[in-house]
């Protein structure tokens, strides 16, 4: 019996990679009965007589799994946000960060097209950066040139399973093409009327990198609703709130109307950015209204 990682799933076949190469496998017959669906990213036990005739026998425990895209055991999400064309959206970035934190994935924020900013915009952007760096997030600044962005990102990708996610139209497929030109991923122009790009990626595959590690060839998180995030867990997805929760008077404090709330005190003292707190309140309302609908 061998061990490997599923790097592609297509038409009922699982393509498992280990030191010996890639093996085309089918799932074990009783997987369906046991409600086991192997995912791209899974570490599995398999046996194969040759490269095209193998069987996945067991799936190891996952450290995380995403629904859209369907992928498991992700180490980090590279959140690609442009500062211009399309313009930077801190609300959307915070939404992505909540999803990443909820799935125990490390985020790396990549701010592209900074060379398009004018002086006043640069100052505003710098103040946003200060907020995220203060929280402890890693930020990479890059220009409009894809190759420069890739060179800045490369050290972060070594020996990790990474997904690219972020705003539509920021060039995630272009970045992946630059990493592995043979991918020839389809890219589309930004729609002028909508100010955003069109999704172009279809099935999920892990692309091995020459220096070790994998990147998923699909933009992550095609859906950004808050299924799976409970209202009482939301503040755990904001690291600067999470570290203050034990200072709140009430257990299960939602940091809205409760007295002696350490999080609200930190917002008033300027220790937590008011923009992040405002987004927290907005997401909390979204989760509650989602619950009411279902």
UniProtKB/TrEMBL annotation:
Residues 63-224 form the CP-type G domain. Its EC number is 3.6.1.-. The keyword DNA-binding does not apply. Its main location: cytoplasm. Binds 1 zinc ion per subunit. Gene3D superfamilies: Nucleic acid-binding proteins, P-loop containing nucleotide triphosphate hydrolases, Probable gtpase engc, domain 3. Its cofactor is Zn(2+). The keyword Ribosomal protein does not apply. Keywords: Cytoplasm, GTP-binding, Hydrolase, Metal-binding, Nucleotide-binding, Ribosome biogenesis, RNA-binding, rRNA-binding, Zinc. Monomer. Associates with 30S ribosomal subunit, binds 16S rRNA. One of several proteins that assist in the late maturation steps of the functional core of the 30S ribosomal subunit. Helps release RbfA from mature subunits. May play a role in the assembly of ribosomal proteins into the subunit. Circularly permuted GTPase that catalyzes slow GTP hydrolysis, GTPase activity is stimulated by the 30S ribosomal subunit. This is Small ribosomal subunit biogenesis GTPase RsgA. It comes from Evansella caseinilytica.
């Amino acid at each position: 019996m061998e061990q490997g990682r599923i790097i592609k799933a297509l038409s009922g076949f699982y393509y498992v990679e280990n030191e010996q190469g890639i093996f085309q496998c089918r799932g074990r017959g009783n997987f369906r009965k046991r409600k086991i669906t192997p995912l791209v990213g899974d570490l599995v036990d398999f046996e194969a007589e040759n490269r095209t005739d193998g069987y996945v026998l067991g799936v190891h425990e996952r450290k995380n799994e995403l629904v859209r895209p369907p992928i498991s055991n992700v180490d980090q999400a590279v959140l690609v946000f442009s500062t211009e064309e399309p313009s930077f959206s801190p609300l959307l970035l915070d939404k992505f960060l909540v999803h990443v934190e909820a799935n125990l994935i490390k985020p790396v924020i990549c701010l592209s097209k900074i060379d398009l900013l004018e002086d006043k915009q640069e100052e505003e952007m710098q103040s946003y950066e200060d907020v995220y760096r203060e929280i402890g997030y890693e930020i990479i600044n890059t220009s409009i040139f894809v190759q420069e962005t890739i060179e800045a990102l490369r050290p972060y990708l070594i020996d990790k399973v990474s997904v690219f996610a972020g705003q539509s139209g920021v060039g995630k497929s272009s970045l992946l093409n630059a990493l592995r030109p043979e991918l020839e991923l389809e890219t589309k122009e930004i729609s002028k009327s909508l100010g955003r790009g069109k999704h172009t990626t279809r099935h999920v595959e892990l692309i091995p990198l020459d220096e070790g590690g994998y990147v998923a060839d699909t933009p992550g998180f095609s859906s950004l609703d808050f299924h799976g995030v409970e209202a009482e867990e939301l503040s755990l997805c904001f690291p600067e709130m999470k570290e203050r929760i034990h200072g709140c008077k009430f257990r299960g404090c939602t940091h809205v109307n409760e007295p002696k709330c350490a999080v609200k005190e930190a917002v008033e003292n300027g220790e937590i950015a008011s923009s992040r707190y405002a987004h927290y309140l907005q997401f909390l309302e979204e989760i509650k209204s989602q619950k009411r609908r279902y």
